[in-house]
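Tutorial handout. Part one gives the primary structure; part two gives the three-dimensional structure as tokens.
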Amino acid sequence: MKQMKVFGIVSVLLMTVSLSSCVKTGDDDDWDKKWEDWVKEVQTEIKASFGSYEGKLYTMSTEPAKDDEEVKKDEMDATWMLNNDSTIDLHDVPAALIVKHLPDSQKELKEAVSNAGNVKIHVQLVYDYYYHSPLMMYAYPQTLTFPIIYQGETHKVEVQFYNYEEAAGTYAQYMMKDGDTYVHKNIIYLFPKTLYMDNKLQTQFTSSSFLVWLGAKKTLQ
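Part two.
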């Protein structure tokens, strides 16, 4: 994860240097006009992205795979909402999927969390104005809190996810059009990080596994 974070920082620095070079060598007025037009395109795509989505939720892995089935697992129907306040709500996410890759030493806790049913994950977004088609959105998942029954008693569980600053793979993308066809496709990548129970750290998740949502708006424009 540290390598992913460093890669993300280096990419931003390189992009900044590149843009600075363009500003110095090109006509200022022409550059300003091109930048304004670019921002308008991004804003148009951001506005078009708002709405309800349906598609599939998978668990995936960064580990080498022998075939596609090892890369994309646990396929199930999923729905989510991309809101106009720069957030995403991921509905009815099975808690069992989130804790699927907890270590064997946490088997009893894993079973208790899995029995909690479905939860909703709330994600804050930061839009990258250097990209559109597909539009890049840096993801900052909020801490997920829900009750469980563990060893006969009720406990509060908190699951924290990596955000984009910690793991550059934590992001979402949106594509408004594919050629001349409106597709409104959306993909989201989230990496579980740590699990707390009653405010005490219980375990960390393996960094090689993550959750992916892939789908399209329910109503196309």
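Part three, for discussion. The two ends are 38 Å apart (CA to CA). The chain has five helices and twelve strands.
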